[in-house]
Amino acid sequence: NRVRRDKVADGSDVRTTVMLRNIPNKLDWLGLKALLDKWCFGTYDFFYLRIDFKTGCNVGYAFINFATIEGLLQMIDNIERRTWLGFRSQKAAEISYATIQGHEALEQKFQNSNINQEAAYCRPRSIHSEMEARDRGDVRLTGTERPLPPPDNLAKLQRSIESAKCMGLYPPTAAVNLGVDARLRTGAYDNG
Predict the structure, then answer these.
(1) 168 within 8 A of 175, measured Cβ to Cβ
(2) Cα Rg for the chain, rounded, in angstroms?
(3) What count of Cα atoms within 13 Å lies in the side-chain half-sphere of residue 107?
(4) CATH number for 98
(5) What is the rounded CA–CA span in Å between residue 22 and residue 186?
(6) How many domains does the chain contain in total?
(7) Is residue 143 part of a domain?
(8) For residue range 121-177, what is the model confidence (pLDDT) as tens digits?
(9) What is the C-alpha to C-alpha distance for residues 113 and 133, in angstroms, rounded to an integer?
């Protein structure tokens, strides 16, 4: 599932959403956005840095969707396989394809998620790409956040909220056979 530069460059692989892994846990969404803007400004339109609610830190990976192939190539050339300056981590950034592909699919996934009820630093971000800003006739919108669509399925949103209260995103492995009491525990990671 690793992103191959040659296939992206020649157009034989047209997937747009990647998972950036080995992110230092202390990097917040603003730091990630600053890094993306340094190399890929105006070329991405969505990102989500997952957060561990117990520690308030990220869990080491983020999802990013690119509106242009140039942005993905810039990420490959300038971020992948490099260590994180300013952090103690010696891990190098890795890029692989995400399971969910495309801006619309990502927005749809999170549209009815309880994660949008959490603090702002935990939420997915939809960003105006340069292409979208030009289409709207205002290039100043490039790189600014735009709101995610409001929930369109209140029953699904309620299930997401209830599920997060009971288990979180990652249920404890022993909870499978422990019954009702185990469901009352909070998961270790985010519940989005």
Answers:
(1) no
(2) 18
(3) 14
(4) 3.30.70.330
(5) 25
(6) 1
(7) yes
(8) 889 999 999 999 999 999 999 999 999 888 887 777 677 767 776 655 544 443 334
(9) 27
13 occurs within a structural domain: yes
- Domain that residue 79 falls in: 5-103+119-147
Confidence at residue 166, expressed as pLDDT on a 0 to 100 scale: 65
* Look-up of token digits 């340069």: 130
Listed residue (2, 58, 15) closest to 190, CA to CA: 58
Calpha distance 100→106 (Å, rounded) = 7
Say how far apart CA 1 and CA 21 lie, in whole Å: 13
Residue 43 tokens read as 């070329």
Where does 89-162 show beta strands of DSSP type E?
Answer: 94-97, 125-127, 145-146
Q: What is the pLDDT of residues 31-81, one digit of tens each?
A: 999 999 999 999 999 999 999 888 889 999 999 999 999 999 999 999 999
Side chain identity at residue 88, one-letter code: R
- Which of these, 22, 23, 18, lies nearest to 96 by C-alpha position? 18
